[in-house]
Amino acid sequence: MSLVNSIKSTALGIAEMFTPVLKESKFKETGVLTPEEFVAAGDFLVHHCPTWQWAVGDPSKKKSYLPADKQFLITKNVPCYKRCKQMEYDPEQEKVIEEEGDADGGWVDTHHYTADSSVTELKEGVDALSMHKAEPKGDEQAEDEEEDDEPIDMEAFEESGALEAADNLAVDPRGSPGEEDTVVQTRTYDMNITYDKYYQTPRLWLYGYDEKRKPLSVQHMYEDISQDHAKKTVTMEAHPHISGPPMASIHPCRHAEVMKKLIEMVAEGGKDLEVHHYLLIFLKFVQAVIPTIEYDYTRHFTI
Q1: Among 7, 16, 212, 223, which residue has the least CB neighbours within 10 Å?
Q2: pTM of the complete model
């Protein structure tokens, strides 16, 4: 945790201690939640997305304004299949591919000039495949081909030692000596949603693991966070309910503002955004910060 973030976290912790618990609903007016509304939204999330569950945490860190058995929400082992840099767009790598007879003007290959030769090899392999049906053969032609193909003498084949010969197409799971591992390993994340008493909104927390379930370093976790938000919107701070190392957290300073805008947009369409929908919508708009962590299993729902 950087010194600046540490000072900010300490200052906000002190400010939270002196911030009174919000008693009256101001959801429609400002986009904030009371603790009771946070619990109601959490119950709705757990009901519709069973991967999320209520948790208690460290008893010494229990918040009196929340039910003892509903201190925060948690989901574990959320997959993260690729790094954010793999989603970055580079216009210099794109090329319009035009095919004969395509009246739509072709398609855009966004990684045509990529330095990764494996992509080029894969594309060449795909291009070699024929998309046309084979012409049916006549009975006489098929019979002639069958007669031309002599059956293999398996005993002679075994005696020749061909079965023991090295298969050039076989893949050594250990890889070639000195070959750089280009396979992106799957990471997993444990995610928490807490109630921030100072900002009066939900707050998302992340803790990552590598493919061997070993904790990720701070730098590795930042690889799974949008570079527009890393070290700005997302900081490493102490979890309010769990003892241990700092966790990545999406700062809640603008959550209420975003939610207020969404409430107004829905109202312009003649509908109301109910408070129990809060966390479902919250998880969708924070997806922009962590686009490769695939936690959003919520289906489309009607407001």
Answers
A1: 212
A2: 0.66
